[in-house]
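Table S2 (continued). Query chain:
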Amino acid sequence: MVRILGINLKDNERIEHALTSIFGIGLVKSKEILKQTKIEANKRVKEISENEVKKIQEYVEANFKVEGELKSVVAENIKRLKEISSYRGHRHAHGLPTRGQRTRSNARTRKGKRRTIGALTKEAWAKIDQTQNKAK
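Corresponding output:
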């Protein structure tokens, strides 16, 4: 396995797609990296030499913010939005979608599991019925 910037790349993937497993590198940046380092995009990860791995790593470190550095920048931006009390900052703080999506029927990824307020769910009623039946 080849390790670039602390990420293990799968041996059987093409290098072009394997680089996208690094946080902050998508397909377009991956193609740009391979073009600038003059490495063939169709090569498999296991066919890449140590010299080529070093070229890729040096190019990425010099030209892009990736992994931990990028994550910290994103976290700082979100923190700044919260501190200045912007609309987007409030949405981040309350765990809601920040880019205008509807929340009445969707947004389960961002909002999390449904929490029923006021009425009981079918599962809760089933538990109550079971406990009452055991008591009899």
